[in-house]
Design a protein that fits this description.
The protein is α/β, with parallel strands linked by helices. It is built from eight helices and five strands. The chain is elongated and about 85 Å long.
Length: 222
């Protein structure tokens, strides 16, 4: 495979490379007045960019950690967000949380901050992978591959949990609706269920939808 060509693991769908937004919270030279720190930040940024391009990822934007970040991310719709931070990045995390509140995305954070509380705060905010002192170009792709696999697994588990909760809620609706029919019509539990089922089939609705309508009518009638 030639350098820069997309790999299978770099492509989420249809073989296209991951679209990545880089968020940089490293201070600029005029902010910290430290040439050595600025030079180190530049080297880290170059290593990150080289690792992404060599692996075939598509860097669609490099954004500052400011108040416009949520809107910019919403407009760009990246597949993954990478945060580059030297130290405490609570402000950028707040912006990222807002930006990904309605649509979850894998978030990888490269940082020099090895404080446990910072790591815990980042993970609680939704960071998929928190990498300390690991920003080397050859490590970028393996880190992102693992982060993407972990994110997909988490999303699968969340979807299964949501489905289980929805089914439980629907079952409770049906049980309540059966109770109403049994009390109002003097039906047995099986007869009440069959009546609900027949109503659902006749109206081309889900059983839970018919149950909800019956309960709504019961509430309306007092």
């Amino acid at each position: 495979m030639k350098p820069g060509s997309p790999s299978t693991s770099s492509a989420p769908t249809g073989g296209r490379p991951l679209r990545i937004v880089i968020v940089n919270s490293v201070p600029h030279l005029e902010e910290d007045h430290d040439e050595a720190a600025h030079e180190q930040a530049q080297q880290r940024a170059e290593a990150l960019r080289a690792g992404l391009l060599d692996a075939g990822y598509n860097i669609i934007a490099a954004l500052p950690a400011d108040l416009s970040l949520p809107d910019r991310i919403a407009g760009l719709q990246p597949d993954m967000i990478i945060i580059e931070a030297e130290s405490d990045a609570r402000d950028v995390l707040e912006h990222i949380v807002i930006a990904t509140r309605d649509e979850r995305r894998p978030i990888v954070m490269f940082t020099e901050d090895d404080d446990t509380s910072s790591m815990e705060a980042a993970m609680a905010a939704g960071v998929t992978a928190y990498i300390v002192a690991g920003l080397h170009s050859e490590r970028v792709k393996p880190v992102l591959d693992v982060a993407l696999a972990r994110f997909r697994q988490e999303q699968k588990l969340l979807a299964e949990l949501s489905d289980t909760r929805n089914k439980l809620a629907e079952r409770k609706l049906v049980e309540r609706a059966k109770g109403v029919l049994m009390a109002r019509k003097g039906l047995s539990e099986d007869q009440a269920y069959q009546k609900l089922r027949g109503m659902a089939m006749n109206r081309n609705l889900k059983l839970s939808e018919v149950a909800q309508r019956l309960l709504d009518a019961e509430d309306l009638l007092g």
